[in-house]
Amino acid sequence: MDDFAEFYLSGKDAVFRAVLAAGGDRAGAEDAVAEAYARACARWETVRVHPNPTAWVLRTAFNFRRSVWRRLRREVLGDLPDRPAAVPEPGGGLRRELAALPRRQREVVALRLVADLSVAETAELLGIAEGTVNSHLHRAVQSLRHQLEPARLAALKPTPEVA
User: Which of 45, 110, 119, 158 is deepest in the core (most CB within 10 A)?
Assistant: First the structure.
């Protein structure tokens, strides 16, 4: 793909969804994706020949989110856990549960299931082993299943009839 505009238009929505799933809040995801694409545009001659330019943008966006969070934690908020607070959004049941996962599990879910990267691509992008990708994905899915199952069962439970 030689044209940056074509690259941007064809992938921006999928990249945004993946970053949002991994990060938790819409504004932060928008900032990270905008910054990642700005950096890709500035380095387009290098990025366009990358084996997977979309993975390059995703990694840049993830790194940007992490940097912002670390800076905020260090400068303003003191010592906080290694995940941003979940910001409730409309219809955010699954999004809320994703935000509750550990950072690495959120990233693996976002890359494997939202961005549809392979295990190998996800492992390379995150700098971890393929087995670790599978392990994180398994744990994340188990956790999500455990968290979401009670709500689904409650919705299916018949309400008592009032006489």
Answer: 110
Query: DSSP secondary-structure letter at 88?
Result: P
Query: How far is Cα 84 from Cα 42, in angstroms, rounded to an integer?
Result: 29
- Using alpha carbons, list the distances in angstroms from residue 46 to 6, 80, 133: 16, 37, 27
> What span, in angstroms and rounded, lies between the C-alpha atoms of 150 and 56?
38
Please check whether residue 111 is in contact with residue 125, taking contact to mean a CB–CB distance below 8 angstroms: yes
Query: For residue 29, which of 64, 55, 75 has the smallest C-alpha distance?
Result: 64
CB-based burial, 47-79: b 16+ in 10 Å, e otherwise = beeeeebbbbbbbbbbebbbebbeeeeeeeeee
Half-sphere exposure of 101 (CA within 13 A, CB side): 29
Q: What is the four-CA torsion angle of 40, 45, 50, 55, rounded to 10 degrees?
A: 10
Q: What is the pLDDT of residue 93?
A: 65
Residues 72-97: tens digit of each pLDDT: 666 655 554 554 444 444 445 677 88
- Global pTM reads 0.67
* Interatomic CA distance for residues 82 and 72, integer angstroms: 11
